[in-house]
Design goal:
Blueprint: E1 14-18, H1 34-39, H2 41-47, E2 51-54, H3 82-94, E3 98-103, H4 113-120, E4 133-135, E5 157-159, E6 164-167, H5 182-197, E7 202-205, H6 223-228, H7 243-255, E8 262-265, H8 272-275, E9 285-287, H9 291-294, H10 299-316, E10 321-323, H11 332-335, H12 347-351, H13 366-381, E11 386-390, H14 411-415, H15 459-463, H16 469-485, H17 487-490, E12 494-496, E13 503-508, E14 511-516, E15 523-524, E16 529-533, E17 543-544, E18 548-553
This protein binds alpha-D-glucopyranose and calcium ion (CA).
Amino acid sequence: MALDSNPDWWRDAAVYQIYPRSFADSNGDGIGDLPGITSRLPYLKRLGVDAVWLSPFYPSALADGGYDVDDYCDVDPRIGTLEQFDQMVRALHQVGIRVIVDIVPNHSGSGHAWFRAALASPAGSAERARYIFRSGLGPEKSQPPSDWTATFGGSTWEPVGDGEFYFHLFDRSQPDWNWDNPEVQAEFKRILRFWADRGVDGFRVDVANALAKDFSADPLADGERLAEIPSGPDHPFYDRDEVHQIYAGWREVFDSYDPPRAAVGEVWVDDPARRARYATPAGLGQAFNFDLLLAGFDADEFEAVIQANLSLAAVTGSSSTWVLSNHDVIRHASRYGLPDPANPSQRRDTGRHWLLSKGQEPAEDVALGLARARAATLAVMALPGSVYLYQGEELGLREVADLPDAVRQDPVFRRSPGYDVGRDGARVPLPWQGDGPSLGFGSGLAHLPQPDWFRDYAAAVEADDPDSVLNFYRRALAARRDLLARTDVAASGFEWISSPAGTSHWTRGPWHCLINFTRLEGLDLPPGRLLVSSERGGPAREELRPATAAWLLV
Ligand code: GLC
Ligand code: CA
């Protein structure tokens, strides 16, 4: 099956996120690589996804898992070569799977040639003007220009030794680009073309809401005041209106290809309505909706998120995205097994990674977490829009909470020792077999150690169990593909059906999805043909058990 020519493929795609270093290692050096991905093509095909999104595989010092890019137009030698990239894309396309690459336009790595040139050039030079350099304060110019705190901790300003500081929103090895500079604007269009010309079908845009910056209004704003400014037009860097001019320019690049290249922005903003601005056809086309990462396993919360996002998609002419896990957050099988925070303001932290602070890991109800994860997954796969899956969730992997400090790699951990363990727990290399030095990931030891319990979750072990999470994902994705191809589904809108408290029920024509969020009560199923159930050992036809979901054809 080759690629179809549908330019709207992204609107309802099932996209599988690959974190290349942790997917499959072809040469036994402990690091996942591109030939490893190509070797697992039958697995991806059998899983039934429409596209893969690759987290960065570019040359990088790996100060932030590859999100510190030293060369945007090459492959890190530890991960492969450009030839191997081309082979991988060809092979994926041959089996009908599209390829999305990650573009990191807010910052480069500090090893980027342009950043090295900036450091080697004097204050006021054209080289420095590609990044954000400012003079230090005080008689010696030794004080940072403001006391803002970077996302990973510490100051946003790093001194370079001559009275100037450069700005970094994330790690100090991730200097922010100056998007007011036409050279930077042109360079990123060149980078987009470089990958589009190689056959890449789409782009995931990292920190898409932070590119446009304006420090002129109050350059000395103190950190506390900054923290009070909501993201939006008044914030010096998060979600300013000018950022959309950049994406209007990118859209011209995307649309110069046939089919047009797709894009999805990573957009964490305070007001979900403003996220829609990134998702218009004149902009990136799609933006990640992370609202379910922050929602509890709760009918009212799910329904509110679903309703709000379907309405936003209708307004912008985009399609919604649904995300339960990615490389930055606690895996949803763990998130749903953790006690719900008593204080809803901690929710945001639960959705991301802070809850697993060192030494404070709360007890996890493994069976409940997994049952809820299966149910939530089936629910989001039944929603209009595209669904983004993160490698390993199809095996039911949980967060690896107990990695030894010595092996942790995430700068989030290093910048906050003893407080925040960071994101490595969601990035442990996949188990492919129940035995072997790295459980089939490769022939050597994996770059992050796999816990013993990973054996039971290995792809080969699960493949033999009809009730495994893997076979459940395969069934659900296959059924979803069939359902989306039906004219009576395509012609029908989304409709809520009233259902008892603690449960949700919606239809898309003959396709019904029911989900039972309660802990105790069963839910009677309407008459119809049961297509897929999230229940292990199920389906029990008459009743939808607590923490399960089902699809029916009515
Ligand atoms: C995005 C990435 C995250 C990275 C950050 C800085 O949020 O998803 O992994 O650390 O950007 O590039
Ligand atoms: Ca390798």
